[in-house]
Structures
1.
Amino acid sequence: MSGVGGHLALREAMVATARRMNTSGLNQGTSGNLSQRVEGGFLLTPSGMNYETMTPEDLVLMRFDGSHEGHRKPSTEWQLHRDLLQARPEVGAVLHSHSMFSTTLACLRRGIPAFHYMVSAAGGTDVRCAEYATFGTPELARNMMVALEGRKACLLANHGLVAVGADLPAAFKLAVEVETLAAMYWRALQLGEPVLLDDAEMERVFQQFRGYGQ
């Protein structure tokens, strides 16, 4: 794999996206992490580093066998990113955050059901909550993969949110959408149980979205 120079544009885009995670409210401090597929592996944000002072050279170049190069330690969640990128060739970028409302629901071990048609943006009729496992472990990565089957986003019990996309902008956009849905669902729950859309209606939504946009 080529060095920093060969991935400079991607590294710069990752730094910018990581900073947007904080300014958008998706993330706080040094929590959360971001990865981008490159030839033979992926770029990953370093462990416990402030995004405001992070530079393109601080990103870690990782291979699928778990080895890495660079002058920083990789995020403790590298297995989560590795397993997703290895198993899902359509995924180009993975975003993990501790966003407020998604994490609130995750701490209740509650996913997001079809209370709103935009839940379909995550690829199905709900956003599942993965079973709990300690952060940075193979068990967490396995539980996440189960929750993401047929989906592009999931919650991690007592932890946070994972969203994937073909590229960085797509992963970021979906993470913002899921966090918005989590906020709306949380607010609706303050008044009672929201009325859910049935599978037939969600299928009509999927059909509508196939021709949506310019």
2.
Amino acid sequence: MTTSGRDRVIDDAARRGIQVEIVERPPAGSLEEAAAGLGLDPSAIVKTLVVKRHDGDFVFALVPGDRQISWAKLRALVGVNKLSMPHQDVALQATGYERGTITPLGSTTAWPVFADERIVGRRIALGAGEHGLSAFVDADGLLDAFGATIADITDELKPR
């Protein structure tokens, strides 16, 4: 029997002692719309990015919605010369989740977690393993449960 992404998130959170609240996320055309629909500041929506190391392994980077990953900062922290964002099919294979639903909770492989320091001490929303859902968690509990490395790994979003 196949377990849904949502169930994998809930089960893994329970095993790790993390309280998680799964909520339906209204459709949104922007970060600001998504945040408003969830009653959050955009910085409380945390993107879980799958990042590929040069050796073929992966890491998770937890990035506030109103910021972008700083490749230079993350490379220095991970201790490698090269990092990249894998194709969505590779990310699915590495985590068991489709892009837009990715979370370290319930991932098919427990990759190391690197989190931006700006999420510490906050209640955040992140992917919940399925489209149309968000998982609300206490960031500190999540970071502790994963033994996350916490540092400044982001830059301000550049206008498009």
3.
Amino acid sequence: MLEKNSRIAEDAAIVDEAIISRRSVRAFLPDMVDDETIRAILTVAARAPSGTNMQPWRVYVTKGEVKQRISDAILNSGIRAEKAEWDEYRYYPDQFFEPYLSRRRANGFGLYGAIGIGRREVDKMRAQHDRNFIFFDAPVGMIFTVDRRLNKGSWIDYGMFLQNIMVAARGRGLHTCPQAAFAPYHRQIRPVLDIPDEEVVVCGMALGYEDNSKPENEFRTDRAPLEDWVTFSG
């Protein structure tokens, strides 16, 4: 029994470390990730649960010239992020309220503060946000879509799939950054990847090796204590 409990504790520690060490990395090294590793991550991630095993995910993996074409299409569109139209789905509420407003502000101030951008330096904030569209220099950029005929349940399933990718990446020494910022630029992305009209662009994701020399990667978010959001009964 002691041996079994020890093995369980060791396994739990490995899984917990992959989950806890996952974070949104915003500066990557140019070191390439081989296709075999990407395939292994996606294969594992596809074990995510989905209602009646529908597996609603669709992934476009891009590198090199194709990834650059996505970046160019967005950055040359003339559409600033704050003016981009979220016409396929709404990620955020129209009006933020507590406690979410405070958490959002703390995240933004913390990130920009880590890289020396002041609260009124709008141009610098925009430039940092635009780094989303070059996948923060990651060698691999993924675009995720879902069939628009599916319902909210499939979007819940999709979230579990995305989390699996990020955790599986950590198990291989890689980092990620999930990026909803790509969603309102579906018109620019579609022709590059030949995405059919029946697919909604859900988000993008950067994948690669963290650049530890960059200050933005020193930023850490916190989490609300359990007591703030859990109710135990019985």
4.
Amino acid sequence: MLTAEQVIAAHKANIETLFGLTNKAFEGVEKLVELNLQVAKTALSEAADTTTAALSVKDAQELLSLQAALLQPTAEKAASYSRHVYDIASSTGAEVAKVAEGQFADAQKKFSTLVDTAAKNAPAGTENAVALVKSAVAAANNAFESVQKATKQAVEVAEANFQAATTQAVKATQTAARSAPKRAA
């Protein structure tokens, strides 16, 4: 049986975990806000520079050159922004997952202890039922570990695909930017 002190300690630990996760979530949101403010400031400054440059253009050839020169950095900045957002989201998610894994491991340990205690105190003749419960707990733990491994592999594959897609997009933009002035000439 659980004592009142154990229940209070468990509730206290759960509340501390909740506040810890809330702080991690706010840190992630804060990083996103900082990134977006930085992007907005930079975009405003670049818009002013681009407008000034566009207003000083003397002919269509110069306008096409200006347009081509702006194409590549914009795509690279978009890719960089996406990478930053992804990094913030994945690091925040990883921290939350780490806490969740720790909580689950702790819960597994406590439940195993509870099952072992119940097995020791079980009446004679219930050995088969106790073995069945232990087997079910072991199967559930194995299933959770398998899901956890599959999830980690899926995240790694998704991250590799994201990086490859970003690299390809930047390369395609660079190629298009290099060929744009040639077409204008």
